[in-house]
Backbone:
């Protein structure tokens, strides 16, 4: 029950995202499906460009309001002479009217009306000024034009952790448009929300999207050689964003949009499935032990019937017994949930709490669960025991179990679930070990990544000065300027064919510092002045996809976002390295010598604290009004698989618990089986049977059931884990050894559990056994 209640808490928490908005039932995000032939991932994106919101609002009466949000941004804010890194969003003027983000100070209708207005959260206001009443104060921030000054016009209350839109500051969308006025229909990089009229038909609205797109984007489609049918716009309810759920039941992968707290309904299904498995196994134990233990109550039932007790009275008696047991279990499960909730929160990265009567719905779910358990564990034994023949019971002639088909089926079901979990755990562990030990193609040990204040017109001279300062420290080995994360996609034309590649900027120190090996050609060098303008280094995948046999010296044509072509020369080929997660395959990569907004610093082993202190000191000296935030590259890599690592622990605990429950059930059944066959065992011993023979006799039936469970569980677990492994472009192969190990574990646990009880009976005095009534 405790496991199931924890799963209910998790599912409730996952499904509560964004429901606090007063207009949540009418709020939808516009999604984009772009089936461009050059696009490898043709899934649905939770993003649009700038133009869709105004165009759809102007032509579709069902749309009451629209608001655009450019999220996932962070920059350096300076307030009260204090520099801090702040996560912010650009949003339309009606942002605080459409969404229910309450303001402590300011008017929701006009806080974002001024071009240089800004709204801070109360926590952000305290970080800068030590108080929340800061309306009218000035704050500076770095953006596309340099350092800009903004007037604080509002302060928002603490943002709910159950909001997909997270921010520490809000800037007017109109200010973004002064830097980047975009009229492209095919761009998708921000979130556009629409507030629909109360009775709007979603399907009709989506059909109108398609019609407007055909009329408005015709010229842009021609330039891209695309058809209108290749782009489709849809609507996703705001309450479905967190779990990537759509109105009509589909559950595609949503990309981009830059909103926070993305999750998946799969986690809810997985945790609830595990909890239900455990609950079913516990109920199976109760059913089996109740039926097997009926021997001890058979005479009681017979006497009750002779004394006038009806079948319904006997059924109700056993249901009441089950109700008392389940009620006590429910109370204890609440206590257990409260005790383990901190550990569960740590595993699931949640902040769940329960209190009475605030969480009355949770307790009602618990009562429903208790009622289901009462029916599951009480009804069948009650009916079965009420059907006993009085004469057979009193003369001890009843066949309590017969062939035990129902009981045996429950044992098979129980072990099928347990073995499935064990197999899943083994394969899960192997994949996680493979990820942690897989050669990424570079050495990230002891390297930190720092973001540069790129809006201060930093040039190569500034970077060189910073490098000299840093490598002059005895605790720092090297500094490089470059990007490792996948860059923007660009079109490159090679040998008459067009391919899409990722493009990143690096300097001549980047590859050597990360120990990325060159396969052919050379690295960038200050000896070659043309490197920054004409030279590129590509990876092995680029060479393969472009079909180049001798890539060094080959000319490739790059088309930028404005449609301008640039000719580049390949001067080097690096071995493929995983610049993205192992979930994604390595794509063609082009590295150009150029300035990046990130620097990478190699720290000396054993001198990490001194090196970090030096980095902070040099940054404060070089950029006195800039807040430097660094991250260890190795930690970032591990963070890519944080969810998988957490679920590895959860599944491991569930597998251990499942095996323990199976042991308890088997031990009890073996105990009752030996009681039922006490005289038989005594006679066999008198006739010369050894303790080993008797132990083997008693264990054989149970082990046959475990074998059947392994046979059933294996294909189920294989199917589930094969589907999960498809999420990784680089993955292990499921081996037959995984199933053998799980089978050995199941057999060993079953054999030890049953044999311990069987051996105890086998060595008992046969005379005592034959005298037992």
Residues:
């Amino acid at each position: 029950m405790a496991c199931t209640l924890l799963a209910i808490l998790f599912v409730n928490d996952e499904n509560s995202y964004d429901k606090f908005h007063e207009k949540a039932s009418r709020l939808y995000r516009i999604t984009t499906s772009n089936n461009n032939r050059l696009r490898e991932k043709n899934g649905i994106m939770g993003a649009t460009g700038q133009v869709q919101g105004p165009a759809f609002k102007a032509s579709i009466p069902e749309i009451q309001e629209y608001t655009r949000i450019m999220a996932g941004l962070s920059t350096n804010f300076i307030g009260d002479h204090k520099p801090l890194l702040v996560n912010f969003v650009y949003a339309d003027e009606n942002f605080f009217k459409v969404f229910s983000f309450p303001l402590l100070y300011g008017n929701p209708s006009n806080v974002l009306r001024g071009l240089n207005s800004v709204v801070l959260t109360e926590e952000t206001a305290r970080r800068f000024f030590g108080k929340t009443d800061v309306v009218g104060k000035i704050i500076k921030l770095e953006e596309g034009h340099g350092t800009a000054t903004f007037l604080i016009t509002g302060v928002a209350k603490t943002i709910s952790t159950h909001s997909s839109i997270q921010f520490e500051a809000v800037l007017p969308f109109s200010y973004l448009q002064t830097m980047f006025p975009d009229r492209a229909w095919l761009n998708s990089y921000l979130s556009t929300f629409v507030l629909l009229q109360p009775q709007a038909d979603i399907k009709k609205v989506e059909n109108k999207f398609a019609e407007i797109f055909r009329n408005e984007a015709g010229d842009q489609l021609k330039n891209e050689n695309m058809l209108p049918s290749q782009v489709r716009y849809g609507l996703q309810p705001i309450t479905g964003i967190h779990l990537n759920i759509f109105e009509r039941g589909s559950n595609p992968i949503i990309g981009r949009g830059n909103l926070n707290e993305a999750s998946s309904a799969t986690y809810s299904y997985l945790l609830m499935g595990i909890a239900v498995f455990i609950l079913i196994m516990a109920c199976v134990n109760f059913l089996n032990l109740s039926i097997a233990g009926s021997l001890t109550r058979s005479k009681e039932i017979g006497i009750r019937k002779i004394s006038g007790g009806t079948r319904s009275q006997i059924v109700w008696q056993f249901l009441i017994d089950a109700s008392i047991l389940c009620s006590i279990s429910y109370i204890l499960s609440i206590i257990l949930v409260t005790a383990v909730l901190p550990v569960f929160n740590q595993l699931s990265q949640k902040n769940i709490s329960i209190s009475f009567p605030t969480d009355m719905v949770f307790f009602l779910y618990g009562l429903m669960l208790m009622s289901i358990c009462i029916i599951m564990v009480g009804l069948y034994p009650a009916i079965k025991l009420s059907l006993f023949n009085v004469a057979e019971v009193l003369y001890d002639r009843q066949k309590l179990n017969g062939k035990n088909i129902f009981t045996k089926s429950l044992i098979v079901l129980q072990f099928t679930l347990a073995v499935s979990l064990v197999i899943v755990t083994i394969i899960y562990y192997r994949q996680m070990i493979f990820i942690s030990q897989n050669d990424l193609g570079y050495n990230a040990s002891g390297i930190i990544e720092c973001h540069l204040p790129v809006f201060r017109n930093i040039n190569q001279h500034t970077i060189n000065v910073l490098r000299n300062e840093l490598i002059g420290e005895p605790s720092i080995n090297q500094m490089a300027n470059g990007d490792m994360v996948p860059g923007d996609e660009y079109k490159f034309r090679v040998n008459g064919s067009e391919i899409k590649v990722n493009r990143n900027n690096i300097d001549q120190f980047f590859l050597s510092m990360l120990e990325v090996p060159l396969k052919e050609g050379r690295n960038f060098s200050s000896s070659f002045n043309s490197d920054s303008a004409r030279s590129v280094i590509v990876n092995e995948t680029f060479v393969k996809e472009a079909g180049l046999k001798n890539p060094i010296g080959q000319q490739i044509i790059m088309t930028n976002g404005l449609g301008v072509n640039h000719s580049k020369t390949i001067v080097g080929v690096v071995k493929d390295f995983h610049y993205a997660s192992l979930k994604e395959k390595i794509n063609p990569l082009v590295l150009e010598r150029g300035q990046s907004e990130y620097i990478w610093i190699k720290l000396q082993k054993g001198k990490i604290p001194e090196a970090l202190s030096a980095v902070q000191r040099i940054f404060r000296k070089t950029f006195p009004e800039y807040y430097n935030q660094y991250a260890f590259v190795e930690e970032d890599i591990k963070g890519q698989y944080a969810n998988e690592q957490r679920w590895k622990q959860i599944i491991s605990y569930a597998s251990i618990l499942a095996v323990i429950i199976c042991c308890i059930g088997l031990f009890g059944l073996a105990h009752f089986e030996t009681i039922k066959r006490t005289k038989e065992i005594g006679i066999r011993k008198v006739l010369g049977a050894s303790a080993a023979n008797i132990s083997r006799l008693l264990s054989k039936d149970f082990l046959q059931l475990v074998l059947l469970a392994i046979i059933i569980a294996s294909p189920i677990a294989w199917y589930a884990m094969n589907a999960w492994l498809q999420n990784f472009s680089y993955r292990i192969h499921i081996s037959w050894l995984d199933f053998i190990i799980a089978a050995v574990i199941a057999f060993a646990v079953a054999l030890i559990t049953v044999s311990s009880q069987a051996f105890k009976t086998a060595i008992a005095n046969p005379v005592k056994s034959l005298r037992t009534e």
Observations:
- DSSP finds 24 helices and 23 strands in the chain.
- Residues 126 and 132 are 6 Å apart (CA to CA).
